[in-house]
Design a protein that fits this description.
mainly alpha; two-stranded antiparallel sheet; 2 strands; 75% helix
Length: 498
């Protein structure tokens, strides 16, 4: 029987404790001191206090020396998990300040509380290799974002989005839990490395195949991969914009990271084959199918969208397809490429939604046609929007281009003789070319189309301009000097033994 060392346990979960305390402090201060102030002042106070807690958690992660695992992998502490947790906390800070000028609710402290609790769930999620903790953390994250999606009580579209998100999320959780129970039955353990050892010692059987499929279905919902994407367009369009930003960025980073670990570490020995001539059953063929469907459906349906939010949703489905190629390669190089890709994608998506927070307030909706002549009405935001959109399209020298280049290179390097991997890269490049059409459609409206005759200049708060400027600068700098984070990611992967 293992004896729990509570002092060591505290060293592993201090960031989560700090964030939970911060969430409670935000609620207490808002209820006791800020109820008589306006919504913007309350949002600013909540964002400041919440960000201070996130910064404290980041400092704790950067200064901690504790490494290893406790309670047989229930909690991990290593350079890679710390790096991912820092990225999640940074995204939370941006989301908190993005909400400052929002008017969708006067329940400010409750919104900040749910956002910080969702982040706490993500921190637990990426720092565990135990199926029970992974599932509980996912549910803490999911339940929080379900409520965040429906936080605008005055909007029927927001309520509909939250209901669809909850219903699809409940079904995906059932699939995932069923898959996890089968894995426990096969291995008598909830630790993913122990599960891999048990799987490796026996041939692939129908129970393992069902566990693979149900696990992919569960995580496929979380990352909005086709055909498990049905919630995404409605949630992206109906949820309050800060909630959409958080769902489209932070939850994607955490979900992709833990999905990679569960498949590559937990299903080691059940990969299957990437050879077209010598097919073997495993999780790689399943992911190849999901990846191709996601790229095809996401890019083709995005072309027909008139709403910028829905276009971003289908774009996210396509990007999920690209990122799943890193799973097919399942190497250290592909993991580094995946983390670089998902973080830079999150930055660009946050940037687009930050610009959209201004244009929606002035134009009243998110229709692409209403962006006509935006470059003459707000040159700075238009320039930054162009940076974000071109990065999502994969245009050099922005970070989106290097992310795809690194991902495709890792895929080809995993098995240089595989024709399947070569065709996957060719298909992904073709789909990227298709995506140029709808991305350039946005910029055509912004820079080429004439503004309406009655159009006035679009003014934006200083805080939003600062956020947008920092995000655009990050996208440019990380594209021109990718080693600023890529080198740290590679070193963290090697130091963590993944």
């Amino acid at each position: 029987m293992n004896v729990i060392n509570y002092g060591q346990l505290l060293q592993f979960v201090w960031p989560e404790i700090i964030l939970t305390i911060t969430a409670l402090v935000v609620v207490a201060i808002d209820l006791l001191f800020f109820r008589r102030y306006g919504v913007r002042a309350r949002f600013l106070a909540a964002a400041t206090i919440g960000s201070a807690g996130c910064v404290a958690a980041i400092l704790k992660l950067l200064l901690t020396s504790a490494q290893g695992s406790i309670l047989d992998g229930i909690f991990l502490s290593n350079p890679l998990t710390h790096l991912v947790q820092v990225a999640l906390l940074a995204i939370t800070i941006v989301t908190l300040f993005l909400a400052v000028d929002s008017t969708f609710t006067d329940h400010v402290s409750e919104f900040a509380l749910l956002l910080l609790l969702a982040t706490t769930g993500m921190l637990f999620l990426v720092s565990s290799q135990d199926l029970l903790v992974i599932f509980i953390s996912l549910e803490l994250l999911s339940l929080s974002v379900y409520i965040l999606a429906g936080f605008d009580k005055s909007s029927a579209r927001s309520s509909e989005a939250a209901l669809k998100y909850f219903l699809f999320g409940g079904m995906s959780a059932a699939f995932m839990l069923f898959g996890f129970s089968l894995l426990y039955g096969l291995s008598n353990s909830t630790n993913i490395t122990h599960i891999a050892s048990a799987i490796h010692s026996q041939p692939i059987n129908p129970i393992l195949i069902i566990a693979i499929v149900t696990t992919v279905i569960g995580f496929g919902f979380k990352i909005a991969a086709a055909p498990f994407h049905f919630w995404a367009p409605d949630v992206y369009q109906g949820a309050p914009l800060p909630s959409t930003a958080f769902i489209a960025s932070g939850s994607k980073v955490a979900s992709f990271f833990i999905f990679f670990q569960v498949l590559v570490l937990g299903f080691a020995g059940a990969e299957g084959s990437t050879s077209l001539l010598h097919f073997q059953t495993g999780w790689i063929p399943v992911l190849v199918v999901v990846s191709v469907i996601s790229m095809l459906l996401g890019n083709l349906v995005a072309i027909a969208q008139s709403s910028l939010r829905r276009l971003l949703a289908y774009s996210a489905i396509a990007h999920a397809g690209y990122m799943l190629l890193a799973f097919v390669a399942h190497t250290q190089q592909s993991l580094a490429a995946l983390l670089y890709y998902v973080v830079t994608y999150a930055l660009a998506t946050l940037g687009v939604l930050s610009v959209l927070s201004v244009t929606e307030k002035h134009l009243g909706n998110d229709t692409i046609s209403d962006l006509a002549g935006l470059s003459r009405r707000t040159p700075f935001l238009s320039l930054c929007l162009a940076v974000f959109v071109l990065s999502l399209a994969g245009i050099p020298p922005l970070s989106g281009f290097f992310a795809k280049f690194l991902l495709f290179s890792a895929l080809l390097a995993a098995d240089p003789g595989s024709k399947l991997l070569l065709w996957l890269v060719i298909f992904a490049i073709g789909m990227s070319a298709v995506s140029l059409f709808y991305y350039l459609k946005i910029l055509k409206k912004v820079y080429v189309a004439d503004p309406p005759a009655e159009a006035s200049n679009v003014t934006s708060p200083l805080l939003i301009r600062v956020i947008v400027g920092l995000l655009a600068g990050s996208v440019v700098i990380l594209g021109c000097a990718p080693d600023l984070i890529l080198e740290k990611v590679v070193r963290a992967i090697h130091a963590s033994g993944l």
